[in-house]
Design goal:
Layout (H helix, E strand, L loop, with lengths): L6 E8 L17 H16 L6 E4 L3 H12 L7 E3 L8 H9 L7 E6 L3 H10 L5 H8 L6 E8 L11 E7 L3
Parallel strand pairs: 1-4, 2-3, 2-4
Antiparallel strand pairs: 1-5, 5-6
Helix pairs in contact: 1-2, 3-4
């Protein structure tokens, strides 16, 4: 039996620079620089011609603020779906979240945290894709880091080493 393959784009965005502090981690807000960087990330995404059909976001304040700034900067996006499974998740847990993405979404934006998100990008691409993008990503996945991956297939079947890293950038404002 043959199944149709769908061209998909996955955008992995690490939240922007957040306040340091001894308070509750999930309640940390973006710094002024973080807001500027998140807007720059939104412009970067829009300038490269991406818009999201589905946005999956950690419920932490810093990721929610990042999503808001990305949208106000011109990155067209669908309604944001907050998923507590994304908060400080492992790559395996993030992959499970992606498996639940709607099949009619061709572009999914996932906004999350390190170290899970950078590890997910590396495991999904497994060295495949743009050499330049891999070189940039190997230098680190800082706050406001953006990995753009391509994948052909159903979200529910996405696995490690199934994608290609097409671009890597960092939003700096």
């Amino acid at each position: 039996m043959t199944r149709a393959s769908h061209d998909r784009t996955l955008i992995l965005l690490r939240h922007a620079k957040a306040e340091q502090g001894s308070g509750v981690d999930a309640e940390r807000k973006l710094t002024d620089r973080g807001v500027r960087d998140a807007k720059a990330a939104g412009r970067w995404i829009a300038e490269h011609g991406y818009g999201a059909d589905e946005v999956l976001c950690s419920p932490a304040v810093r990721t929610t603020m990042t999503c808001d700034a990305v949208a106000t900067a011109g990155c067209s996006e669908a309604e944001v779906r907050h998923d507590r499974r994304i908060y400080n998740a492992s790559p395996e847990a993030l992959l499970e979240v992606l498996h639940d993405a709607p099949e009619d979404a061709n572009v999914v934006l996932l906004v999350g945290h390190a170290p899970g998100l950078p590890s997910l990008a590396s495991l999904l691409a497994d060295g495949k894709g743009s050499t330049i993008a891999h070189e940039h990503m190997s230098e680190g996945f800082p706050t406001s880091g953006i990995a753009v991956l391509s994948y052909a297939g159903a979200w529910s079947e996405l696995g490690f080493a199934d994608a290609r890293l097409e671009r890597f950038g960092v939003g700096r404002g």
